[in-house]
């Protein structure tokens, strides 16, 4: 495809884009900026210079590398980005290249979402060094649609507005802004529809993607980053999403996104494109000039060929041939596109010291913590009661287990045989079922992990806010409901001692055992992101604790170097409490003579090695179980703080 040339000069035998034309495009583009209706901050230009990024930069010191296991040896450092420089202003800016070329890495670096280890270079915003709070001032939409699935589109947008907008913005203004975003993104027809879960049919993929974009638009950012916004969408939906972004660019926003191979109807929406190959920049300029540029490098686009497919083929060809790669790299370095960027670089570095002294302060506006807590709790409660997999599964499992245990151990007799054995058996089964039943909460916790990382990194809320809301409005609430239901069913079906005090001990033990299981699941979910691995680890921990509960084997017969595990066994503390509560002040009679009761419950406690003479003997087990539970929740909170929020 031959287009009218726009080249007027020649430098080192390489044709160059006319500098004045490139400057006009960078200052305006074919999207004429208009005043944003949202009245956001003045951020509109982002420039970057000498961006280098290397992975696996930290290396372990191995004294004997020849005998060290190969799978434990550190991977060699790999440079992902090589000295990239460029400028983005108002308009649509696509970062393109073949798989593994560094598109997403560059996008994450510019959005301040990349780990600083192995990263070097300079980023300027409106001519000033980017503040540390830059990532809280821009919009960032990840490739996967991370959004609360049990809320409607409007509720998700209102949550973002309530949690992220400054305190001086009234509730009416927040609602008006959300309504405007819904209108701008064409979400009126699905505004009151749930996003959708595995059990609930919700909005379409395109509507879901636009809802994610809308949550970031609440802040009315002038700079907007998107990672592969068309991934997983059909052609019509992808076109609709990109048209929405184009309309946002016309409102004066700088839209920067990575994209793989867009169709032509999408490609023609771009103002500039940045082409990367093996982390090297081979083009950074107007999209409409890219075919002419590469035609002067010896690459001709065939008639009716998609320009996006054409440039990707050029990049793949260069990747497979080092000589062609060097030729294209040299051509770009000698182009007026690169010259313009380097001239801006010199000017901004001259002014940098002055800008650092007088530049904007890095301030991140936050809600009052109590208000932040209120909105996160509100959303958590809605999710708890709208998500069948979160609450119904646990309630149903609790009822089924309660009925099963109640039927198997129905109406226990106070006889020496089999009454004693059956009572000990039901206590062990009750504790095991209650702790293991908490595994149903593991998958929802892991799913919410990705949402927490994204929202916390974007400045939605503090970690302590999420943790407290999760504990009070989800874990604690469900554990209370489940424990009460299970206790009412099991206690009276099995015929345990009809005493209000003993029932109170039974209920509080069941609750604490259930809470302990939840705390372990939360800690593992905060540490490991794969459900299968998390499930195996939690089950392994529970099994080890169960072995050292004292019910399966006499702890005195265990190796001394292993016996210490009994002190970290929640199963042991819970079964000890229930056993002491049930067997104190009870006598067991002969099977054929209910008037002759030769075996007191205290003798049974003595036989199993439990001290029972004081109340402290009972409550020290509750104290141990409580301390383990509190410790696990504390570790879970610390792990939430430590979760890597960058890529």
From TrEMBL:
One of its GO terms (cellular component) is apical plasma membrane. This is ABC transporter domain-containing protein. The keyword ATP-binding applies. It is a multi-pass membrane protein. InterPro entries: AAA+_ATPase, ABC2_TM, ABC_transporter-like_ATP-bd, ABC_transporter-like_CS, ABCG_dom, ABCG_transporters, P-loop_NTPase. SMART domains: AAA. The keyword ATP-binding applies. One of its GO terms (molecular function) is organic anion transmembrane transporter activity. Belongs to the ABC transporter superfamily. ABCG family. Eye pigment precursor importer (TC 3.A.1.204) subfamily. The chain crosses the membrane at residues 389-412, 424-446, 467-493, 505-526, 533-555, 622-641. It holds the Pfam family ABC2_membrane. It comes from Rotaria socialis. Its main location: membrane. CDD domains: ABCG_EPDR. Keywords: ATP-binding, Membrane, Nucleotide-binding, Transmembrane, Transmembrane helix, Transport. Residues 62-303 form the ABC transporter domain. It is found in: Membrane.
């Amino acid at each position: 495809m031959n287009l009218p040339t726009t080249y007027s000069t020649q430098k080192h035998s390489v044709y160059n884009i006319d500098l004045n034309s490139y400057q006009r495009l960078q200052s305006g583009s074919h999207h004429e900026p208009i005043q944003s209706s949202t009245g956001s901050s003045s951020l509109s230009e982002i420039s970057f210079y000498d961006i280098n990024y290397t992975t696996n930069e930290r290396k372990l010191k191995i004294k004997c590398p020849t005998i060290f296991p190969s799978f434990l040896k550190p991977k060699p450092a790999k440079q992902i980005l090589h000295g990239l420089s460029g400028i983005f202003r108002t308009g649509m800016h696509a970062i393109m290249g073949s798989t593994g070329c560094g598109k997403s890495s560059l996008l994450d670096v510019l959005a301040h979402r990349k780990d600083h280890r192995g990263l070097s270079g300079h980023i300027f915003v409106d001519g000033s060094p980017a503040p540390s709070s830059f990532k809280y001032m821009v919009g960032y939409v990840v490739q996967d649609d991370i959004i609360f699935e049990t809320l409607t589109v409007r509720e998700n947008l209102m949550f973002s507005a309530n949690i992220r907008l400054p305190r001086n913005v009234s509730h009416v203004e927040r609602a008006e802004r959300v309504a405007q975003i819904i209108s701008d993104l064409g979400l009126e027809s699905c505004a009151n529809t749930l996003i959708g879960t595995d059990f609930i049919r919700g909005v379409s993929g395109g509507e879901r993607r636009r809802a994610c974009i809308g949550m970031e638009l609440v802040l009315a950012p002038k700079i907007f980053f998107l990672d592969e916004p068309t991934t997983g969408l059909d052609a019509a939906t992808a076109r609709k999403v990109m048209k929405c972004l184009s309309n946002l660019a016309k409102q004066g926003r700088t839209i920067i996104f990575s994209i793989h191979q867009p169709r032509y109807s999408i490609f023609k929406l771009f103002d500039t494109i940045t082409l990367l190959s093996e982390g090297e920049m081979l083009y950074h300029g107007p999209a409409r000039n890219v075919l002419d540029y590469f035609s002067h490098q010896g690459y001709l686009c065939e008639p009716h060929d998609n320009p996006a497919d054409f440039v990707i083929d050029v990049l793949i060809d260069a990747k497979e041939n080092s000589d062609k790669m060097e030729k294209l790299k040299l051509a770009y370095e000698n182009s007026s596109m690169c010259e313009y960027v380097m001239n801006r670089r010199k000017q901004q570095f001259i002014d940098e010291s002055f800008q650092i002294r007088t530049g904007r302060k890095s301030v991140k506006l936050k809600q009052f913590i109590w208000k932040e807590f209120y909105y996160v709790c509100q959303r958590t409660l809605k999710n708890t009661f709208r998500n069948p997999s979160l609450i119904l599964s646990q309630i149903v499992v609790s009822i089924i287990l309660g009925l099963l245990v109640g039927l198997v151990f129905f109406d226990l007799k106070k006889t020496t045989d089999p009454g004693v054995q059956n009572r000990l058996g039901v206590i062990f089964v009750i504790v095991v079922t209650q702790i293991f039943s908490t595994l149903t909460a593991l998958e929802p916790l892991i799913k919410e992990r990705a949402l927490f990382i994204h929202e916390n990194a974007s400045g939605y809320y503090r970690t302590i806010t999420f943790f407290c809301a999760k504990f009070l409005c989800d874990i604690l609430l469900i554990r209370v409901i489940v424990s009460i239901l299970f206790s009412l069913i099991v206690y009276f079906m099995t015929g345990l001692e009809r005493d209000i005090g003993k029932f109170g001990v039974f209920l509080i033990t069941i609750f604490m055992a259930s809470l302990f299981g939840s705390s372990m699941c939360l800690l593992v979910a905060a540490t490991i992101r794969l459900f299968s691995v998390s499930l195996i680890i939690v089950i392994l921990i529970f099994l080890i604790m169960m072995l050292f509960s004292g019910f399966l084997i006499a702890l005195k017969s265990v190796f001394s170097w292993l016996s210490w595990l009994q002190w970290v066994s929640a199963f042991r503390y819970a079964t000890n409490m229930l056993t002491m509560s049930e067997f104190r002040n009870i006598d067991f009679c002969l099977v054929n003579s209910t008037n002759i009761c030769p075996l007191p419950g205290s003798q049974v406690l003595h036989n199993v090695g439990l001290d029972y003479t004081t109340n402290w003997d009972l409550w020290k087990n509750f104290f141990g179980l409580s301390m383990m539970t509190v410790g696990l929740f504390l570790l879970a909170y610390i792990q939430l703080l430590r979760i890597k929020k960058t890529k």
